[in-house]
Amino acid sequence: MRHVHLLDTSVASDNVGDEIIVSEARQYVSEVFGDAYISTSSSHDGLGHYGRALVADADMVLLLGTNALTGKYQRRGNFIWSVGYRDIKPLEGKVVLVGVGASTSSTEMRPRQAKLLNRLLSPHHAHSVRDETARTLLDNAGLKAVNTSCVTLWRYRSEMPAIPVKAAPAVCFTLTKHKGSEHDLTMINSLRACYQKLYFWPQQMRDLGYLQQITDASDIEIRPANLEAYDALLANTDIDVVGTRLHGGIRGMLHGRRSLIVVIDNRARDIGKETNLPTIARDQLGDPLIQKLRDGFETQVNVPTEKIDTFLASLKG
Is residue 211 within 8 Å of 220, Cβ to Cβ? Predict the structure, then answer.
């Protein structure tokens, strides 16, 4: 029986977006490795005593999604994929990336980081990355990678579900506190002009304090900062999703809701450009946003079906 170990990027994370990614990724893990023994540990915390023992026994280690690639040397410390000195040997040559993205727009790969990645990542697989920046980073490290886009979009390789073109009566919006801007208040006021009812979902808890800092939120219904509450809202409300949170917007689409993602970093920019994911520039959150929401827009996401299928097939080998 194969033993597959998962480096779970949603454990010990303060960002519910990681939970959205992993919930999708684990569906494909179940499809590919339905007859395998599956163990897990936290990518954020690194391997402890028990994690190292599990990894040493595993035939393959999968790093599940999120923006865990950088060209800057990263090992132990405040980073999404924490690798301690004692973790390297059990991980060596076993790690396969599953829809992992870049944490930066830079494609410069430092020699020390390239050396570390070449020790950790499997030389027998073309690793699945979610954007061209990540693919270029691995290419610059001398590793094989294929841009399969984000795992949260893989279900669209069969067909795109019907998503409304016209506006719903309500909207759920998101903000990103650590990348705040004066444009955020412009967005909120634009949404007030377009919708009868506003909801706010904090993908990170600090987003709620940021909302209350920039506007009077008495006319906004605050949803709990957990995925179950967000899913319930999306499932049971005629609603659009607009905001700066990439995976909050994608989760809306997965529920068949019209979603528009505000571009604030390389992730939404790259994935939007490569897949036709509905996005809008941050400096367009006044009249252009109002017009787009009122006029309506189609959602037709394009994902690299053949590359995704080939990657999943390679995991079975």
Answer: yes
